[in-house]
Amino acid sequence: MNALLICSGGFDSVTLAYRLAKEHSLGALLTFDYGQRHKKEIDAARLCAEQLKVPHWVLDIGNIGQQLSGSALTDDIEVPHGYYTEQNMQLTVVPNRNAIMLTIAFGVAASRGFNTVALAVHGGDHFIYPDCRPDFIRLFGEMQSQALDGVAEVGLYAPYVHGDKTDIAKDAAQFGVPIANTWSCYEGGELHCGRCGTCVERIEAISLAGIMDPTPYQDNQFWKAASMSRVSQEQGT
């Protein structure tokens, strides 16, 4: 496998980068600037590429992102706090984001001789993000086989799609990911906020994996209450 990895600079995609590098399957990183509210994750992706000594391309699709309005990730909307199963997390959905990025990535892969596009979507994303679900990944791969028929053979690799973020955290420990160098927070402040959905999920997963988290957070306790609230909702109490 010679993979072109879509890398945001977040915990998930950087972990997959280190996993692929360890397996000698990482060809390059591809990062998208779609007009997200901060660029700290792009800087983290750039650092990852430098550390792994692979090419890194940043594609500016900001003009497209401007049309995908209504998300807290692209508009001046307050970032919701809590767990992803909460209804207010719908504000973090950027419509068709993965479908758009994957379409471009497959074209780049076919043009540059990569035989795989890799993506770090995982099971924890299924509830809130429809373009992270197993059926989407399967059908998108099939669609690209038709789109590139006779042009190139490029597969879609999403090893965490049936797992969860705890599996990713365990891989992070196994493959020596510099966790503090990854950026997940939606807020984009000086430190990870510790309260937005992706911070809560990140802290919880690392805790459940039983590994040390060197990342400084503004609030490293909020996730416990958010996790308890989620469990209570699931139990119907």
TrEMBL record:
Zn(2+) binds at C185, C193, C196, C199. Keywords: ATP-binding, Ligase, Metal-binding, Nucleotide-binding, Queuosine biosynthesis, Zinc. Its cofactor is Zn(2+). Binds 1 zinc ion per subunit. CDD domains: QueC-like. Its EC number is 6.3.4.20. ATP binds at C7, S8, G9, G10, F11, D12, S13, V14, T15, L16, A17. It comes from the Bacteria. Pfam families: QueC. GO terms for biological process: tRNA queuosine(34) biosynthetic process. Pathway: Purine metabolism; 7-cyano-7-deazaguanine biosynthesis. InterPro entries: QueC, Rossmann-like_a/b/a_fold. GO terms for molecular function: ATP binding; ligase activity, forming carbon-nitrogen bonds; zinc ion binding. It catalyses: 7-carboxy-7-carbaguanine + NH4(+) + 2 ATP = 7-cyano-7-carbaguanine + 2 AMP + 2 diphosphate + 2 H(+). Catalyzes the ATP-dependent conversion of 7-carboxy-7-deazaguanine (CDG) to 7-cyano-7-deazaguanine (preQ(0)). Belongs to the QueC family. NCBIfam families: 7-cyano-7-deazaguanine synthase QueC. This is 7-cyano-7-deazaguanine synthase.
